[in-house]
Design brief:
Length: about 170
């Protein structure tokens, strides 16, 4: 099992599942959600329509259609409202539920974007710490379940935040 830190477009990654930072409708939007829907093609929206939305902190899975990734795990991060609305707990729950779905479906490589840190305004360093702690805790318990977990950043400054915290937490990559 290894961690990989990538700077670039998550829609280009050939992994068992990429994670989408979606909204509760699951019907598409801007940011990484828009990019994933564009790259996957219209069948993704049709399939998502049948899922009946998704609660904040929860996750649902679809095929990847035209994406190089076999599956998309759609999760809905919290909108940052200052930290008093359980935003941290809800973000942690996103990571856990995505990995639980991957585990249940035998998906061994998963790539995460930095959930909630774009349109939803979650401070990147706080979000990164939650992401790394939740993923590391899950992987510790399910040591043989995964080959690779990718953290895919879309800016060099986010990538630098991840790199420093990964080193701090001893997550070799
Ligand atoms: N590959 C990887 N990361 C990306 C990509 C990409 N192609 N595009 C953007 N990012 P955001 P959120 C980064 O706003 O904050 C949507 O409209 C981006 O730079 O995509 O969870 C949904 O429909 C940032 O670091 O998601 C929701 O309404 C990270 O992905 C809402 O935005 C997350 O930014 C969700 O907001």
């Amino acid at each position: 099992m290894r961690y990989r830190l990538v700077l670039g477009d998550i829609t280009r990654l050939k992994v068992d599942a990429i994670v989408n930072a979606a909204n509760r409708t699951l019907l598409g939007g801007g940011g990484v959600d828009g990019a994933i829907h564009r790259a996957a093609g219209p069948e993704l929206r049709e399939t998502c329509r049948r899922l009946g939305g998704c609660e904040t902190g929860d996750a649902k899975m679809t095929p990847g259609f035209a994406l190089p990734a076999a599956h998309v795990i759609h999760t809905v991060g919290p909108v940052w409202k200052g930290g008093g609305r359980d935003e941290e707990g809800l973000l942690a729950s996103c990571y856990r539920n995505c990995l639980r779905l991957a585990l249940e479906n035998g998906l061994r490589s998963v790539a995460f974007p930095s959930i909630s840190t774009g349109a939803y305004g979650f401070p990147v360093e706080k979000a990164c710490r939650i992401a790394l702690n939740e993923v590391a805790a899950f992987v510790d318990v399910h040591a043989d379940a995964f080959d690779e977990i990718v953290f895919c950043c879309f800016s060099a400054s986010d990538r630098d935040v991840y790199r420093v915290l990964m080193q701090e937490l001893g997550l070799a990559f």
